[in-house]
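for the writeup, i need someone to sanity check this before i put it in the appendix. the sequnce is what the collaborator sent (i think, or maybe the updated version? ugh). structure was predicted straight from it, no edits. if anything looks off just tell me and ill rerun, i have time this weekend
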Amino acid sequence: MKKILRYTVFLLVLLLMTVFAHAYDDTGGHWAKESIEEWSGNGLINGKGNNLFDPDGNMTRAEAAAIFARLLKLEEKADISQFSDVKESDWYYDVISKCVCAGILNGDNGKMNPNQYVSREMFCTMTVRALGIIPEKKLNKSFADSSSISDWSKGSMNALVNRGYIRGVTENTVAPKASITRASVVTLIDRIVANYNSNELKENADAVSLVFSNVTVEKGFSGTVTVVSNGVELSLKGAENVDLVILADDVKVKDIPSGTFVTVSKKADGTVLNNKKAENNSVFYVNNKEVIYMSTQENTFKEEYKKPELDVVEFDDEDVINTSTDNDDDQLEWDELLY
């Protein structure tokens, strides 16, 4: 009995050591202290050595790739031999390969620039791509420097500002070209992501819940549900005001509530929505359990996700959602989102 007690105490001590292992020497009193310690504890981001985090230091493209690879638990890799500045011996080779495969990170003229600092607009674009957040055409808050946002990032920055994830470096500036700090990166992730690694989706309006396994949904849940692991089976019974994003293969979702927009990425094969097969690279709208095809997933803005004219929807014998139309005029028109 005493041995069991001593062993239990030993485990508790180890647990406490693990919980407090990420209290850095240079984050005391910092505005991002809680977010830094929480996400360091989750293994999302590491310190810089000597128990220092360097919260106001900048972040490189390689370090950003490592964060998204860990956050989404990416496994599939792309061939990145075309990038002359990334070698297999580099510590960041695998994480960059994974992010390229996931469509989060692109190179430029045969280079990846792994050690280049990430700008705020660049990190926003990577975040939107990684989490399946829908870009938005309009910015609902006025910043003195909003005109300096690059065309390829406007939809992404607009979405994150409009949702309250990005609040500017001052009340009147958003500093899109400035390098993003390590503290800002962790704070942004902390504001966006809810129910991380949880077996239950609880109400988190305007937050993104990342789903890695079969989970239960709390009644009244609202927000964005992003499924990132293959083979997940999910029921959204009781959920309200949901956006659903499918990034993985062989995902089955049932009880999708009316009014839900569903985005199925181009890499997501074998998706089943309310017992109907759904093609990848597509956007759907759910009305009274019927899943209605709207358009392709690429180059779309949230403002153009409009409810379609709701007629009786007929499915073919194979129960595959029809992604064709006899009248091109009935298709939604989509403006191009530059990347």
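The CA atoms of residues 290 and 312 lie 9 Å apart. The mean pLDDT is 84.
thx in advance!!
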